[in-house]
Design goal:
InterPro entries: ClpP/crotonase-like_dom_sf. This is Clp protease. Keywords: Membrane, Transmembrane, Transmembrane helix. The chain has helices spanning 9-31, 39-69, 75-103, 111-120, 144-154, 170-183, 197-202, 233-246, 251-257, 270-276; strands at 123-127, 133-140, 160-168, 186-194, 207-209, 214-216. The protein has 281 residues and is α/β, with parallel strands linked by helices. It folds into 2 domains: 9-103; 113-219 and 234-276, 2-enoyl-CoA Hydratase, Chain A, domain 1 (Alpha-Beta Complex), CATH 3.90.226. Strands 1, 2, 3, 4, 5 and 6 form a 6-stranded mixed sheet that branches. Helix 1 (9-31) runs antiparallel to helix 2 and helix 1 packs parallel to helix 3.
C-alpha cells in the first residue's frame, strides 16, 4: 500500500486548515438565526463537522511533523495551532447558536402585528345581527380608527354607534369621531362614556343616553408627561372645544367641560345634557 506523503506545511496550512474551516464557518454564519433545523439533523451535522475538524488536525499535524523532520521552524506550526483553536471555538459558538434557535418556539408574528393584537384586545367592536348598529366598548387605543374605518367601509348600512368606554387616546378618539360625523351616524351611550369617549358621542347626528347612562368630563392629562414636553394640553383642549362647539354644544356648558381635575370626573345630569345640546333626537 502506497502512503501519500504529507503536503508541504504552507500548502497544508491553507488547504487543510484555512479553506475548509472558512467554508464551514461562513455557512454556519449565513444560517445563524435564519435556518431552523431539526434537532436530529443538527446532531448529525455537528458529528460530521467534528469528523472534518479531526481530519484537519490530523492532516496538518502530519505536515507539521514532516516539516520538523526537515528542520523547519515552528512559526507556521504555532500559527496553525492558533487557527485550529480560534476556529474550533467559533464553530462551537455557532453550533450552539443553531441549537438555541432550533429550540425556540416558531413564531411568524411580526412585532407590529403583535402590538396591533395587544391593542385590539383592549376594546371590542361588534356589529348587530342586522348590521345597522356598531357597538364599541373598552379603551380607546392605537389602531381603533383603522379598524373602525374598515368596518364602516364594509357596512354602509350602519346607522348607529353604541358606546361604553372610560376613554383613552385622544388622537384615536378624534379619528373615530370624524368617521362618525362624516357618515352622519347616530350615537347612543350605554353605561359610562367618559373622557375621550365623549368626543365619539358628540360626533353623532342624533345623540341619546340609554337609561342609567352617564357622560363623564375632566381636564386632559399626559400619561407620559416627561416624554412629551412640547405638547400643549390647553391647545389640545381648545381643539376639542371647537369640535364640541361645531356640534351645537352651548358655550355655558363648554365653560365647565374641563373644569374637573384629571383625577376625577364631572357627570352632568340628563337635564344639564339636554339643555347643553348634548342630547339630540
Amino acid at each position: 500500500m502506497i502512503r501519500r506523503a504529507p503536503l508541504a506545511l504552507p500548502h497544508s496550512f491553507w488547504l487543510h486548515l484555512v479553506l475548509p474551516r472558512a467554508v464551514i464557518l461562513l455557512a454556519l454564519s449565513a444560517a445563524d438565526g435564519v435556518l431552523r433545523l431539526d434537532m436530529r439533523l443538527l446532531y448529525g451535522l455537528v458529528a460530521a463537522d467534528a469528523l472534518v475538524f479531526l481530519w484537519q488536525v490530523m492532516r496538518f499535524q502530519a505536515s507539521a511533523d514532516n516539516h520538523l523532520r526537515g528542520m523547519g521552524g515552528m512559526t507556521l506550526i504555532w500559527g496553525g495551532y492558533l487557527v485550529l483553536l480560534v476556529s474550533g471555538f467559533a464553530s462551537i459558538s455557532l453550533w450552539w447558536g443553531s441549537f438555541l434557535f432550533a429550540a425556540q418556539p416558531e413564531t411568524t408574528e411580526l412585532f407590529t402585528d403583535r402590538m396591533d393584537r395587544l391593542h385590539a384586545a383592549e376594546y371590542q367592536l361588534s356589529l348587530s345581527d342586522d348590521g345597522s348598529s356598531l357597538s364599541f366598548s373598552g379603551t380607546i387605543t392605537y389602531g381603533l380608527t383603522k379598524r373602525a374605518t374598515e368596518l364602516l367601509a364594509a357596512n354602509p348600512q350602519l346607522v348607529t354607534v353604541t358606546l361604553t368606554s372610560i376613554g383613552g387616546h385622544i388622537y384615536e378618539a378624534r379619528g373615530f369621531a370624524n368617521l362618525i360625523r362624516a357618515r352622519g351616524l347616530n350615537t347612543v351611550v350605554k353605561g359610562d362614556c367618559s373622557s375621550a369617549c365623549t368626543l365619539l358621542f358628540v360626533a353623532g347626528t342624533q345623540r341619546r343616553l340609554a337609561p342609567g347612562a352617564r357622560l363623564g368630563f375632566h381636564r386632559y392629562a399626559l400619561e407620559f408627561g416627561p416624554l412629551l414636553p412640547n405638547l400643549d394640553l390647553a391647545k389640545e383642549q381648545e381643539k376639542d372645544l371647537a369640535f364640541f362647539r361645531a356640534q351645537g354644544i352651548s358655550e355655558a356648558f363648554l365653560a365647565q367641560v374641563f373644569e374637573q381635575p384629571s383625577s376625577a370626573l364631572w357627570y352632568p345630569s340628563r337635564q344639564q345634557a339636554l339643555q347643553a345640546g348634548l342630547l339630540v333626537h
